[in-house]
Design goal:
Layout: H1 5-23, E1 35-40, E2 53-60, E3 70-76, E4 89-97, E5 106-112, H2 122-132, E6 141-148, E7 151-160, E8 188-193, E9 209-212, E10 220-225, H3 233-251, H4 261-264, H5 269-282, E11 290-295, E12 303-304, H6 342-350, H7 353-366, H8 370-392, H9 415-438, E13 454-460, E14 465-471, E15 474-480, E16 492-497, E17 505-510, E18 516-517, E19 528-529, E20 536-540, E21 552-556, E22 566-570, E23 578-582, E24 591-599, E25 619-621, E26 625-628, E27 636-641, E28 646-651, E29 657-660, E30 664-670, E31 673-679
Parallel strand pairs: 1-6
Antiparallel strand pairs: 1-2, 2-3, 3-4, 4-5, 5-7, 6-7, 8-10, 8-11, 9-10, 11-12, 13-16, 13-24, 14-15, 16-17, 18-19, 20-21, 21-24, 22-23, 25-26, 26-29, 27-28, 27-30, 30-31
Helix pairs in contact: 2-5, 2-8, 5-7, 5-9, 8-9
Length: about 675
């Protein structure tokens, strides 16, 4: 009986493995980085991106976490990078493994050569930006020295293969049998891919599948998951139609006419905003040539990310930039390469006000402390890579310092000069992106700014004053034209919080009963509560008429939706009846003015106390903004100019508190703490 082909293959590979182990050279750690020794069968060269070569991997490092010493397969990878002298590779390990201790347990890994990037760190810096932008996934990475068939071939960056994995792109599993809803709806990983029509056949893994969107932009899109041999034509029809519906939603959107929900049915605004911010920070000319997006099961939205392929980012491309203009002070959308009409599609999305506002809101959340963090990443990586880069750029390996590689803008003669350029570029780029994003929308101004430590009367357009009265076992909001306006029950503390690019929000606390106005139902009396409070926004009253133009409607900003957009209705049919009614129909009995009623006196029995805080290291200043980081919720912040005038006030909510201020020197007051800061 003849042995099976599988048996013969396994036996021959086992003999090969033993032979390698018997004659291998010493496996030494070459620098402070882990060293990877790759020995191919018969010392075979790696010349193809389609066909794997059998190999044995051996690793050594001071830290032995995640070192792989076993059989594997290796082939080439990349598009433009595959044509360079120093080649990138893809590894397929024998078994799933946490390679070099990275989070994903998988057998597919990538070795990036970074040959076009003489800092060797642009991809790593982009990944750190992706993490700082809290994208849904950013590839992990580790640096190492690589020896191939006994020859040192340079410094490499090991990283994830972008694919489905719970610690990579977390998607539902699709099988060939999934042909109907809801299973067929996900998950999918797509690449809006300028190279889609150049994808080549591979007998080992099947034909890459791609399609052209027909919703108006003709995007070329490669399906990265499911794998082609696991994908049926029903799934291809479904995802190509769904992507084309996304294109159509963008193409047919008319600002000021189309409801934003038509777009957000298919586009997750938050992930798009964070992808776009990262795209601008990296200044990647290839950023829209290749865009990864995912779609989950039972979810119509596409989620943008992760970042990939950033070796010509950060001013490292002479095809679109020059020495006089290396792109650090202009939007990357001005000159980036486009995949068909993809640039037009992204520009259309960026023209939509709600998208621009979301970008600004997400930037406000991301930017505090980001500049220093990214500069620290560069400094830290330069130290980590120093010994390895010396070997990499040595005369016997890759002596390319001072010469142009690929589309490099300006060659420099030392590694230190390359890193210094990148550091300066990142420093300037951060400042530009900060100013540019702030210019996308106008920061809405607060309609009313209450003075701190003051009480206010709220007088309705129908002449009534709001006040609090006992009701059952608590208190409720009431209104009357005859109620004595100097009574404590008619005085309210008005606290405002203003976050960057968002409307100011307010809450009301009554002096006499030390409770907050709290809407808990529709069309019912409005109670006071010792802890719960309704946040309100304001609208300018259209009903002022001949009265002073300082009346405002108070609109609940509360969730759930049933309690949103409600106002305080001082109904004229009942002298004390104040109930929660919709403000969609703006009426005089739902609009008020704020009348100064004297200095706020904290009652001895006040149940709501401000937390104590040490402001040391928590107050940061930037371009036109002041940020309080990691300050507990419920703390009243007051900011004064040096002339003693109040410049801003806010109530902290447990997250970073950001105040917009003109340039100047200010005193920040929180409880008994005072800090002097300068805003640029």
């Amino acid at each position: 009986m003849k042995p099976s082909r599988l048996f013969v293959f396994c036996l021959s590979f086992f003999v090969f493995f033993l032979t390698i182990l018997g004659v291998k050279a010493a496996v030494n750690q070459l620098t402070n980085l882990p060293s990877l020794y790759i020995t191919t069968k018969n010392n075979q060269s790696i010349t193809s991106k389609e066909y794997y070569v059998e190999a044995v991997l051996e690793m050594t490092a001071t830290d032995t976490t995640g070192l792989y010493n076993d059989t594997a397969q290796i082939k080439g990878r990349g598009n433009s990078s595959w044509g360079m002298a120093k080649k990138p590779y893809r590894l397929k390990l024998r078994d799933d493994f946490h390679f070099m201790g990275m989070p994903a347990k998988d057998n597919a890994w990538v070795l990036l050569a970074n040959h076009a990037d003489k800092t060797l760190m642009r991809n790593a810096l982009a990944f750190e930006i992706g993490k700082a932008c809290q994208m849904y996934y950013t590839p992990a990475y580790r640096y190492l020295d690589v020896v191939l068939n006994g020859k040192y071939i340079g410094n490499y960056m090991a990283t994830d293969q972008v694919e489905r994995n719970k610690n990579r792109v977390d998607l539902e599993k699709l099988t060939f049998e999934n042909t109907a809803l809801p299973d067929i709806s996900g998950g999918y990983l797509l690449e809006i891919d300028g190279f889609a029509n150049n994808e080549t056949d591979t007998t080992q893994e099947g034909n890459p599948i791609w399609f052209t969107g027909w919703g108006g932009y003709s995007s070329k899109v490669t399906v990265k998951y499911p794998d082609n041999d696991d994908m049926n034509h029903f799934q291809m029809d479904y995802i190509s139609a769904h992507y084309s519906a996304f294109e159509s939603a963008v193409k047919n959107f008319v600002v000021g006419v189309t409801d934003t929900s038509k777009l957000t049915k298919y586009l997750d605004l938050k992930s798009f905003a964070r992808w776009y911010i990262a795209f601008e920070l990296t200044a990647n000319p290839d950023g829209i040539w290749s865009i990864y997006v995912k779609k989950n099961r039972n979810d119509d939205k596409f989620y943008f990310g992760p970042l990939w392929d950033n070796d010509i980012s950060f001013g490292n491309c002479n095809r679109i930039y020059s020495v006089a203009n290396d792109g650090r002070n202009e939007s990357i959308m001005v000159k980036c390469f486009s995949n068909g009409s993809v640039r037009s599609m992204i520009e259309k999305i960026l023209s939509i006000p709600e998208v621009r506002r979301t970008i600004c809101i997400e930037w406000y959340d991301i930017y505090p402390g980001l500049e220093n963090k990214l500069l620290h990443v560069i400094d830290s990586l330069a130290t980590t890579l120093d010994a390895s880069q010396e070997r990499n750029f040595s005369n016997s390996v890759w002596p390319v310092l001072g010469t142009v590689v690929y589309n490099e803008l300006t060659p420099r003669y030392t590694y230190e000069a390359e890193v210094a350029f990148l550091r300066g570029y990142m420093d300037d780029r951060y400042d530009f992106v900060d100013q540019y994003i702030r210019s996308l929308v106008d920061d809405p101004k607060a309609l009313f700014t209450p003075e701190p430590d003051r009480y206010y009367l709220l007088q309705c357009l129908n002449g009534k004053y709001l006040y609090a009265e006992p009701y059952e076992d608590g208190y409720r909001l009431a209104a009357s034209t005859t109620f004595p306006a100097d009574s404590a029950s008619a005085r309210f503390e008005v606290v405002m919080t203003k976050k960057y690019f968002q409307e100011a929000v307010y809450y009301l606390r009554n002096e006499a009963y030390n409770g907050f106005v709290y809407i808990d139902s529709v069309g019912q009396f409005i109670p006071l509560d010792a802890e719960k409070k309704t946040m309100f926004t304001l609208y300018d009253s259209p009903n002022d008429g001949s009265k002073p133009d300082n009346y405002f409607g108070l609109v609940s900003a509360q969730t759930p939706p049933a309690l949103a957009n409600l106002g305080l209705d001082a109904n004229s049919s009942n002298s004390t009846n104040v109930v929660a009614w919709s403000t969609s129909n703006k009426k005089a009995q739902r609009e008020y003015r704020f009348i100064d009623a004297g200095k706020l006196i904290t009652a001895l029995n006040r149940t709501v106390k401000e937390p104590q805080v040490n402001l040391a290291g928590k107050v940061l200043s930037g371009q036109g903004v002041l940020t309080l980081q990691q300050v507990p919720a419920g703390l009243r912040i007051r900011v004064y100019g040096l002339d003693g005038r109040l410049a801003a006030t806010a109530m902290t909510d447990g997250y970073d508190t950001v105040l917009t201020l003109p340039a100047g020197v200010y005193i920040v007051v929180a409880g008994n703490e005072r800090v002097k800061v300068m805003v640029r």
